[in-house]
Specification:
This protein has three helices and no strands. It is an all-alpha fold and 80 residues long.
Length: 80
């Protein structure tokens, strides 16, 4: 497994926790789903930042925003 993927997974765990802290409230899936969404948001943020040629701090911000967006969409879907 390339090092970048492992780093992205670890960052995703952190991003998921930060997204949960920034978006308090009841989540249908709890912390596990939030962490999985954080990992997905980390991959998305890392991809977008890399495609735009931006540095790591922008990747962190993009990862957190991506995780928050995915968490928001997940909440909308589970409520419907």
């Amino acid at each position: 497994m390339p090092v970048e993927i492992v780093v992205t997974l670890v960052v995703g765990l952190i991003v998921g926790a930060v997204a949960k802290l920034l978006m308090p409230g009841a989540d249908p899936g709890g912390w596990i789903v939030t962490i999985v969404l954080g990992i997905a948001g980390s991959f998305v943020g890392n991809f977008i930042a890399g495609a735009l040629g931006m540095a790591s701090p922008v990747g962190w911000i993009g990862s957190i925003l991506g995780a928050m967006l995915l968490l928001f969409l997940y909440r909308l879907v589970k409520r419907a």
